[in-house]
Specification:
globular; Jelly Rolls; 3 domains; 6-stranded antiparallel β-sheet; Beta-galactosidase; TIM Barrel; beta-galactosidase activity; hydrolase; 8-stranded parallel barrel; 33 strands; alpha/beta; 12 helices
Length: about 600
């Protein structure tokens, strides 16, 4: 049995160990890419991989668990072990990670509970999740001849609260379910965060998160250790080697030489986990959102992060700069030539048909109610819901307004487009009229993502859909049909016809035969807003606001005969599907 200890140094079987770790999120990659990504981590000279574990993908509906496909965590751990990599696991209820709702499942919003707290109801939900999760991790611990060195208790809790009872209960749960490797917390290195977010008095190892000024940050972390009479090694659990991106903003880049110099300084004193080694992709509707007082700022589909490997897994300038620095500082480090994935730019494909959303709504699952329900009450937590009702036509203009909705609403009367409203304009009056005795009203609501960090995690603002109601004149409308729009194989049953000019959201179908199958990018630069489904898999959102105008498609999601559907909400005709062998990014 292997023995890992935290003394004045990390020690593995009584030998000193410097942890050289890189973050790789299995859930942001196609499983066919796990091996090559982890091989490249080792090829750079690192010995450890770190990953978060997002609760919301493993328990998408309460009591229903998924550990298959992209979420097959145990398979990912087995590959790491086969390659000789150690593992740091972060199975915390909250992960942040620029991930939808910070990894918290949206169904929690249907309960009257305090998130990330010692609220008994919240702890009960965590316990149920951990009873499904932890048995899958126990055998992979270093203490069970696996490769997991440590596990995390909570994530940056000192930036959220100081409920020590909650942190202690999480520790008790983990220990009771067989976790016997050392536990750690990770927080910013300022004194308030470290004081609030740690359990240092209970001997839970304390690490810090930062992306620059390594000397100063390690000084602060070491001082905190000393104040509690700990002679622990120093470790940065998240060294931010890049950054994430939001719609409509400039792509964030970090100079490779500056970063590597700071990392070199860090390694003279301690251990590191690079966040990220490879960022990957926010497939589906799993992109996170930055919280602001008056509006929230959703993040893009790509989680390239300007990381050591780019979104497609290609080694960047940072990879070779890091490799050279490591060889200079640690001459005995084992390194290899990295694997370069092949990226194809396929021929342009022409549309084989178009289906209007409003014309095909009846083909989707429908929930009927007197008043509109939120996404959470509909148990349809992500993406889009189409709300439909009718109002009497009195033969003159009427005023329509939506009361309390999130995040983006598009309004239609008798299938004619009226307006699109967001946080600043939802509730503004819109004029409606019609030619028939009854006017059909359709309201398409998009959940652009729940926040992944900050005080709004506990706020009712994170509930999505129409939460108040819809008024015409001074009356709330009743008699609603809510169509739950899936982005999977269900789209096959729509009525696709020759592409007409349309003023309603459309599903645009393409078919493509392939012989030489590799990863690619779909060029969305001519589209408006929506998402793309490849062979029944939602690969993510596009938006003309940029700054990134491509959607990455892993080769593992393609096959010889392919069906690709582009959902477009902005009345932009989609007649072609173009590809690229690289990301298309705005030059700012």
């Amino acid at each position: 049995m292997m023995k890992f200890e935290i003394k004045d140094q990390f020690r593995l079987n009584d030998r000193p160990l410097k942890i050289l770790s890189g973050a790789v999120h299995y859930f942001r990659l196609d499983p066919t890419q796990w091996h090559d990504t982890l091989f490249n981590l080792k090829a750079m000279g690192f010995n450890t991989v770190e990953t978060y574990i997002p609760w919301n993908v493993h328990e998408p509906d309460e009591g229903k668990f998924d550990f298959s496909g992209r979420y097959d965590l145990e398979k990912f751990l087995e590959i790491a072990e086969d390659l000789g990599l150690y593992v740091l696991l972060r199975p915390t209820p909250f992960i942040c990670a620029e991930w939808e709702f910070g990894g918290l499942p949206a169904w929690l919003l249907n309960y009257d509970l305090q998130l990330r707290s010692s609220d008994p109801e919240f702890l009960k939900k965590v316990q149920n999740y951990y009873q499904a999760l932890m048995p899958r991790l126990v055998s992979h611990q270093i203490t069970h001849n696996g490769s997991v060195l440590m596990m995390q208790v909570e994530n940056e809790y000192g930036s959220y609260s100081e409920d020590k009872t909650y942190l202690t209960e999480i520790v008790k749960m983990m220990r009771s379910l067989g976790v016997d490797v050392p536990l750690f917390t990770s927080d910013g290195t300022w004194i308030e965060a470290l004081t609030a977010g740690t359990l240092i008095d209970k001997d839970i190892f304390v690490t810090g998160n930062f992306g620059s000024h390594s000397i100063e940050n390690f000084d602060a972390l070491e001082k905190f250790h000393q104040q509690h009479n700990k002679k622990w090694p120093l470790m940065c659990m998240e060294y931010w080697d890049g950054w994430f991106n939001r719609w409509g903003e400039k792509v964030v880049r970090r100079d490779a030489s500056e970063m590597v110099e700071d990392v070199s300084n860090l390694l003279q004193r301690g251990s590191i986990n690079l966040y990220m080694f490879r960022g990957g992709t926010n497939f589906g509707f799993m992109n996170g959102c930055s919280a602001r007082k008056n509006k929230d700022l959703p993040q893009v589909t790509s989680y390239d992060y300007d990381a050591i490997l780019n979104e497609a897994g290609e080694p960047t300038e940072k990879f070779f700069a890091m490799q050279n620095m490591l060889k200079q500082n640690f001459p005995d480090v084992q390194q290899h030539i990295p694997i370069f994935p092949k990226i194809n730019s396929y021929p342009t494909q022409l549309s084989t048909g178009c289906a209007g959303l409003l014309d095909n709504a009846e083909k989707f699952e429908v929930v009927k109610s007197s008043y509109p329900k939120s996404f959470e009450k509909l148990h349809h937590y992500y993406g889009y819901v189409l709300y439909r009702t009718e109002t009497k036509n009195f033969g003159h203009d009427e005023k329509l307004k939506v009361i309390d909705a999130n995040d983006r609403v598009s309004l239609y009367a008798d299938k004619k487009y009226l307006a699109t409203q967001t946080a600043q304009t939802i509730g503004d009056e819109v004029t409606i009229n019609g030619e028939n005795p009854q006017i059909q009203l359709d309201i398409l609501v998009e959940n652009q993502s729940r926040v992944n960090y900050g005080y709004k995690l506990m706020a009712p603002t994170q509930k999505k859909g129409i939460k108040g109601g819809v008024m015409v004149d001074h009356q709330f409308l009743v008699g609603w049909q809510q169509y739950l729009i899936p982005f999977d194989e269900t789209l096959k049953k729509l009525s696709y016809q020759a592409s007409p000019k349309s003023t309603q959201p459309t599903f645009n179908r393409f078919t493509m035969k392939l012989e030489d199958i590799h990863s690619t990018y779909i060029d969305c630069s001519k589209y408006g807003k929506g998402c793309v489904v490849v062979n029944g898999i939602n690969i993510g959102r596009f938006w003309s606001k940029g700054p990134i105008h491509t959607l990455y498609v892993p080769g593992g999601m393609l096959k010889k005969d392919n069906e690709i559907i582009v959902f477009e909400t902005e009345n932009v005709p989609i007649e072609e599907l173009r590809f690229s062998d690289h990301a298309i990014i705005d030059k700012m």
